[in-house]
Amino acid sequence: MTTDQAETGATDSDTTNVIAGVVARLRKVHASGRTRTAQWRIEQLRGIERMLYEREDEITRALAEDLGRDTFESWMIDVLDVRLEAAYARRRVRRWMLSRPRRLPLHQMPALGWVQYEPLGVVLIIGAWNVPLTVTLGPLIAAVSAGNCAVIKPSELVPASSRLLARLLPEYLDPDAVAVVEGDGRTTQNLLAQGLDHVVFTGGTEIGRKIMAGAAPHLTPVTLELGGKSPAIVMRDANLAVTARRIAWTKVFNSGQSCIAADYVLVERAARDELVHHIVRSLEEFRAGPPGRGVRIVNEHQFDRLAGYLADTEATVAHGGGSDRAALTIEPTVLMDPSPDEPVMREEIFGPILPVLAVDSLDEAIAFVNARPKPLAAYVFTKSTRTGRRVLSEVSSGGAVVNHLTYQRVAPQLPFGGVGSSGMGRYHGKWGFDELSHRKAVLVKLFKPDLRIAYPPYTDRAAKLIRRLYRP
């Protein structure tokens, strides 16, 4: 269903009523208990897998229309990862659903205790534009694995992908339990006002604050994946050619429009020039074609923001720097030693621009990162196990990788999420199942024994026995 008032001419009251009706239907389905069975959950996960396999061509065409991506890149980013995650969950969800027995303390005996996993109810999933299927279907996998109904609000900035999800999901998933609501920020606030049982949002920090504010009146719990400025720390003992290739790849893959790409590089001064040389060489290899060929940016707003960074910088441009507003393209650009106070170093870049700053020591690099908001990811390149472990232990980030980038995102065995201003909550694999389940503590007692000393009035003798029983 679509609630875009500009297209339908609907009033605010009409839109609110439509959304309220969708949510009421989902709540009724959830209350019926049909989403609780393992078979229902497995069918939904299998439906996601089939959709991604059978409709791959339609999906990649929509992504090309919205983002200018080529077919293979879209398959890697928005099809393959989600298919693998859905298959991973499908094969394990029966086991995840099992109650987990817990050993109880002696003073509770005789008794049984366990943790029982229950669906939360109706989950709202608010998608982002940069990887439209991954950031909607990934949380959806967690939601249906946990037995929830779900309402998906795709990003309005990728209309072809949004329309595609609205059309395909009812064909492959239970249409009474999973709904797609299209629209803009007003639609999102309207959905939040329904007091749903959990919200999963992927996007920027400022919008994340608005999501929390909209959820607060209903005490709706939120999972926020917000990004931030993810650093790559490069030590001079690293293999600089390989390091450069891996860093450069994250700035051309999806045009650098990724929350876990390297936002900036801190490199030991002695290795700075060689690293930049290899990064430039890698970018030239990745972007074969005439000089000045840029990568596509999603829209004019994002283009103007990135072009503004280039216009305002005092850094040395080691590569690129060109842009074409008519084509919405920006050359992959390497900036050497920008001021830490420049916009490009204060705001998340989310595009094909890579600042490289020289530092004199690992201490300086760690202090630089820790003086700023906690990032979604942190990367370190070094041959030293000790150096790698030090960065892992001293830099707080949502996730971390040693000697590569972004791979933590595609491993369903690992939790994915932020910390501090880069987000809260976790999903992927069992972590997503746990996040969107209520973990109910259950304790079962027998009627006998029922010792008199447990009840008042407490005699001196009873008090002494109870104190002894509860002694650590």
What is the compact description of this entry?
This protein has 472 residues and is an alpha/beta fold.
List descriptors.
about 475 residues; alpha/beta; Aldehyde Dehydrogenase, Chain A, domain 1; Aldehyde Dehydrogenase, Chain A, domain 2; 7-stranded mixed sheet; disordered N terminus
Shape: globular
Quick one: biggest sheet? Answer: 7 strands, mixed
Number of domains: 2
Strand order of the largest sheet: 11-14-15-9-8-16-17
Distance between the termini: 59 Å
Mean pLDDT: 93
Which architecture name of the largest domain does CATH use?
3-Layer(aba) Sandwich
CATH superfamily of the largest domain: Aldehyde Dehydrogenase, Chain A, domain 1
Uncertain stretches: 1-8
Question: Could you explain the architecture of this structure?
Answer:
The protein has 472 residues and is of the alpha/beta class. The chain has helices at 5-8, 12-32, 38-54, 56-67, 71-97, 134-145, 159-172, 185-192, 205-215, 240-252, 272-286, 300-312, 343-346, 362-370, 385-394, 429-435, 460-469, and strands spanning 100-101, 111-119, 122-126, 149-153, 178-180, 198-202, 222-225, 231-234, 264-268, 295-296, 316-319, 323-324, 329-330, 333-336, 353-359, 377-381, 399-402, 423-424, 437-445. Strand 14 (333-336), helix 13 (343-346) and strand 15 form a beta-alpha-beta unit.
